[in-house]
Amino acid sequence: MFVWISGLFLLVVLSFIHLTQGQADYTVSQLVKEVWVEGRIQDIVLSLRLPRLVIGILAGGALAVAGAVLQTLTNNPLASASTLGINAGAYFFVVVSMIFFPSVLGNFPFLVALAGAVLSSVLVVTLAGKQMEPVRVALTGMIISLLFASMTGSLQLLFENQTNGLFLWGSGTLVQLNWNGVSFAGPMIVVLFLMTLALAKPMDILSLGEDVASSLGQNVPVVKLLAWAAAILLAATTVSVVGPIGFIGLMAPHIVRMLGIRGHLHIFLQSFLWGSVMLIGADVLGRLIQPGQEVPVGAMTALVGGPWLLYLAWKTAKTHTKGDRQMGGTLKPVKLPIVIVIIAALIVAVLTMALSFNGSVWSMDWMKPVIWNFRVPRVLTAFIVGVMLALAGVLLQGVLRNPLADASVLGVTSMGGAGAMLLLVVFPAIPVQYMPLGAVVGASIALVIILTTSWKNNFQPMLVALMGIAISAFGSAATQVFVVKAKLAVAAALVWLSGSTYGKGWDDVQLALVMVALLLGPAIYLTRSLDTLTFGDDVAAGLGLSVKSTRVWALVVGVAISTAGVAIVGTIGFVGLVAPHIARRLVGFRHLPLLVVSGLLGGLLLVTADFVGRILIAPKDIPSGLVVALIGTPYLLYLLRKMK
């Protein structure tokens, strides 16, 4: 009862403060006295501020209940609509509809968001497997989120005019100009909330385990289907009205459980209340920080939710000691010289096409000024950065004993993007060329967080992977918010965030060559230690290897290589995930040949992506990051499905 009273008291206090915030200034006492009579205050409250408050209460409650349902269904304390990619899928479908089918979006915004949410959920359930292992579910959601986020960002870049109005909404905002949003979402959320309450008792039984639930006579597939439907519909409803707001669905159910609430009926009821409190509180805080300006509420939930997610990741890893997994690969490797010759031939062929074709005209005269000064350095930069990202992927997968690890999953890429965008927001007059400095700082912060949180636990692979997922989620949310705040610099920022070799010159080639020269030696030196680490920590320690030292140096070198790549071309993901997988199926598990072949494949992959993006809709450019995501993700999802 105390928890109920406290929550309701907080919600009432925050609601009164919320109703007094805005450009039209009046006090709480004026609000209480004058809201009942016709006039300025009543008009403002009824037409603008009350709809915003009501939608905040409904959306916060809906996201929290959806998170509670998803955490039980996936047996994953890190599950929510944002971490499982449901929000990202819904947002992607909204952006696509805004560009290509605006009338459909205008008439059926909920159905559009629902289609994206359903697709993301189906992908997670299909690829994560029946066991719903927490780390596997979290990684699957992370990869799906990365895919949708890269495609969304690229579409926003290519169709800036059509999607300009979506930037604020895409960061999550409670702004309501009338009661339309409330009248649409309110009945939906109430009905779905009642549906989840009806499912509370079956979910209590389901939480005992599917086998136990079946033996007690429960129709497990039906219960799970209804629960998934309720969670997805709740998420889609909120996204269609207020945009993709993260972290509420993650934090509220955990806070409720920490307050001693047990049983799904009480958890759902309390989650709705505390989710509302948290979202209204975040909106109040955002408007206190910048009075008179619209700060996306997603910014505030990310600010609080990021550290909370880090804590949950750390806590989850402590309760799941199993972290190593099969890396995949062939037991009958092809001879290294044969593999290198074949890949080299492919590289020569792709480089020749990339240098000779501009999308409409072929020219083998590579010394022409327009080719030599623009196309040649661009292609060479793409190749060298592709090599760097693949090398980083090999090191990070080796040190974490996880085939799904790379700079994207560890949060280095997203924090690099957040750091670059923060630099642009704090110093709006700074040239875009200085964005890499912010990226280096952001990536370094990600590395420091991983090192400090994992040091005492000997850098257990599961802990590092989960911390990386948390950092990545926080960085992605922060980046979206900074894009909104950057305003006039949005176009240049989106080019960089989408990962593009557009406009690269000979200075970039020289910088990339210097970074490779500096970091290739340490990477090669670490290969023998990583070979030993593949036998497991105990065996490696028995053979005299300092496991902790190896993990630290491999993390530092891997992050340094990927940060250098990100600083040069922006946030390109998937190369470091896909190239090592392909290489492992060609040359096996030993890290030196794996490093060589992965590097060549990474260069080939990024040059191919850059070439395809340059000619597909010439003279427009599709960012390399999007093309890589489209090429690499189907293969990666196939591997994820095949992994034991």
Automatic annotation (TrEMBL):
Its main location: membrane. InterPro entries: ABC_BtuC-like, ABC_transptr_permease_BtuC. The chain crosses the membrane at residues 53-72, 84-102, 108-128, 179-200, 225-247, 267-285, 297-314, 334-355, 376-396, 408-427, 434-452, 464-497, 552-580, 592-616, 622-640. This is Iron ABC transporter permease. Belongs to the binding-protein-dependent transport system permease family. FecCD subfamily. It is a multi-pass membrane protein. It is found in: Cell membrane. Pfam families: FecCD (PF01032). The keyword Transport applies. The lineage of its organism: Bacteria, Bacillati, Bacillota, Bacilli, Bacillales. The keyword Transport applies. Keywords: Cell membrane, Membrane, Transmembrane, Transmembrane helix, Transport.
